[in-house]
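Researcher: I'd like a candidate sequence for this fold, 316 residues long. If you have to choose between options at a position, lean toward the conservative one.
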């Protein structure tokens, strides 16, 4: 008891509260603090005068740390805020993470859950809350995105494993398809769902390079098994037969069998994609049947969602 008071007096003498601090004066401020008052009132029945007296060092510690945070000074445990607690009828201070710290941690977890291949950096900061709704052509896509997230989270909560189809975003260059995909992925990460975002043309290049080192199978596996998969910009590059049948076809087949939600973005509509992009002409013959089979899988996995509006890339 004597030691605590002495230690406290020593500490106080080093701290300039009110310029000329003395023990009684400082404690007057501590007891006038709203949180301290509230704590003492809440625990009236458990605290004897003796215990309050013994707890003065703790009350002071609480008061001091709280004010440091309020004044943006370096506190005892940055990122944590002091909380008064009662343990075995003795006053104590514990430290809990501040909202700022929790938010920062959430952001770190989010970035772990969203993985990508060949995507622009802007997807990291894409947020549904910042999705510009002023244009009609974007509202319905935004609504479809919210509906997907709701339904997906719902079936997770209910543990019902009900298949929720993804979106096939179609619209011209610059309307915000990639931005919307990134926003959906970041929103899903908040509920712990992991998403793979894949810029499909870049992935195709990566796979061709991986042939030498025999790594194509492993790369395809990672992508095809992701809880949520987003294939960005399909149709931006011409397809080889290998990429279409042994990469895209294999990925889509696996996802269909396992009912895993899959998103697409393309400048082509579904019909254009099927008729103009997927068929490959060999020996003068177009293999539209193979194109149809791929398209059936895309149709099963996603719902066509048109997006229109300004080309946002021209906006400064
Ligand atoms: P698309 O994939 O349809 O070609 P992007 O998603 O790449 O279009 O969007 C074009 C540009 O506009 C990008 O630089 C992107 O960051 C920006 N953008 C799109 N939507 C938004 C938004 N809601 N808020 C802020 N920037 C956006
Ligand atoms: Mg894009």
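Model: Candidate sequence:
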């Amino acid at each position: 008891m004597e030691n605590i008071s002495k230690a406290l007096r020593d500490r106080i003498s080093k701290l300039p509260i009110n310029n000329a601090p003395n023990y009684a004066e400082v404690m007057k401020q501590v007891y006038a603090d709203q949180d301290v008052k509230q704590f003492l009132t809440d625990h009236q029945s458990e605290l004897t005068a003796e215990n309050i007296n013994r707890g003065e060092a703790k009350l002071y510690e609480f008061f001091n740390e709280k004010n440091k945070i309020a004044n943006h000074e370096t506190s005892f445990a940055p990122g944590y805020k002091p909380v008064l607690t009662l343990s075995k009828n003795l006053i104590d201070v514990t430290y809990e993470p501040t909202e700022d710290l929790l938010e920062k941690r959430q952001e770190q977890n989010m970035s772990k859950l969203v993985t990508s291949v060949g995507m622009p950096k802007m997807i990291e900061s894409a947020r549904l809350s910042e999705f510009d709704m002023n244009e009609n052509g974007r509202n319905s896509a935004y609504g479809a995105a919210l509906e997907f997230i709701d339904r997906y989270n719902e079936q997770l909560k209910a543990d019902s494993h009900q298949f929720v189809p993804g979106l096939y975003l179609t619209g011209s260059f610059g309307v915000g398809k990639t931005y919307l995909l990134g926003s959906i992925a970041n929103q899903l990460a908040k509920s712990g769902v992991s998403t793979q975002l894949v810029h499909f043309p870049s992935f195709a290049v990566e796979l061709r390079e991986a042939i030498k080192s025999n790594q194509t199978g492993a790369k395809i596996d990672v992508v095809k098994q992701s809880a949520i998969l987003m294939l960005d910009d399909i149709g931006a590059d011409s397809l080889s037969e290998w990429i279409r049948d042994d990469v895209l076809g294999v990925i889509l087949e696996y996802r269909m069998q396992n009912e895993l939600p899959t998103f697409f973005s393309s400048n082509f509509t579904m019909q254009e994609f099927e008729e103009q992009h997927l068929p490959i002409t060999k020996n003068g013959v177009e293999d539209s049947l193979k194109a149809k089979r791929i398209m059936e899988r895309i149709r099963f996995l996603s719902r066509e969602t048109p997006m229109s509006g300004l080309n946002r890339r021209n906006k400064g």
